[in-house]
Write a structure and sequence with these properties.
Among the domains are: 90 residues, no CATH class; 82 residues, no CATH class. The longest helix is centred in the last third of the chain and has 18 residues. 19% of the residues lie in helices and 34% in strands. Strand 1 and strand 2 form a beta hairpin. The strands form two sheets. It has a six-stranded antiparallel beta barrel. By secondary structure, it is α+β, with helices and mostly antiparallel strands. The chain has five helices and twelve strands.
């Protein structure tokens, strides 16, 4: 049997939606599972719905304020029936609620608004306790940080928050803040062909062509030069016309005197 004080402390950490496994001793030991549907704020009393029963867990204290027992009762239309004393308590699963991060701050659930006590905040980096001086506002970053504003980059996915003496709640973090310009990655349009890149490509092509044919640059750059070159090539051979005897140059003949 678990110590009654430990059982009461465990019950204080469970909130609505938490699935429990309960073991109590009446005439014989009985074990069942159920979901917490209601709880006493600041206390350990819990209402649990099972598949076929409505149970209520209450704790009894001594004159010194020490928990001496946690009693299991069944609530029916006919009244309340005492089932026995709680022996064991196991938390099977906790519900996951949503916690939104907005430009105005962390959106505080209604049951935390105005809370001035201590919170235990647990995330992937560990746990820390902070007191909410002045009470939590409707939008308050202290719900996650304990103090001070929330950083621009917040990488937690699941966070557990426990008020001292209250139930532990699990939250999924939904970041709906508008990204700042500094955090925006630089992005640009895909590279496309432009007149400049086209001219560069043409220049590279011309350079390759000139390396293969040195005369090609003159022919491409100036049509007039190309025509002159063609005429020059056409008139390199003599042209014969009818009735015209081409003139040939022969060496002079010298006559030797006898």
């Amino acid at each position: 049997m678990t110590d009654p004080t430990t059982l009461a402390d465990s019950l204080r950490t469970v909130g609505p939606g938490t699935r429990l496994e309960l073991t109590w001793n009446e005439n014989c030991q009985t074990t069942t599972t159920g979901v917490v549907t209601d709880f006493e704020r600041g206390g350990a009393d819990r209402r649990v719905e099972t598949a076929d029963r409505t149970l209520y867990l209450t704790h009894s204290r001594s004159d010194a304020g020490v928990t001496i027992a946690v009693t299991v009762t069944e609530i029916t239309l006919e009244g309340v029936t005492d089932l026995g004393t709680l022996q064991e308590l196991a938390i099977i699963d906790r519900p996951i609620e949503t916690l939104r991060l907005t430009d105005a701050g962390v959106e505080v659930p209604p049951y935390y608004v105005g809370y001035e006590g201590f919170l235990t905040i647990s995330d992937s980096q560990g746990s820390h306790d902070s007191r909410m001086l002045g009470g939590l506002d409707e939008y308050d970053d202290r719900l996650l940080t304990g103090f001070g504003p929330l950083p621009e980059t917040y990488n937690e996915d699941i966070v557990e928050i426990t008020p001292w003496g209250g139930p532990t709640r699990r939250f999924e973090i939904i970041d709906q803040r508008t990204p700042s310009e500094d955090s925006q990655p630089l992005a640009g349009p895909p590279l496309q062909a432009t007149p400049t890149t086209a001219r560069l490509a043409a220049t590279r092509t011309d350079a390759l062509d000139r390396a293969q044919d040195p005369n090609q640059d003159q022919d491409r750059s100036c049509p007039r030069n190309r025509a002159s070159t063609d005429r020059h090539r056409t008139h390199t051979a003599p042209v014969s016309r009818p009735g015209h005897r081409p003139v040939t140059h022969q060496p002079p003949v010298r006559h030797h005197e006898q």
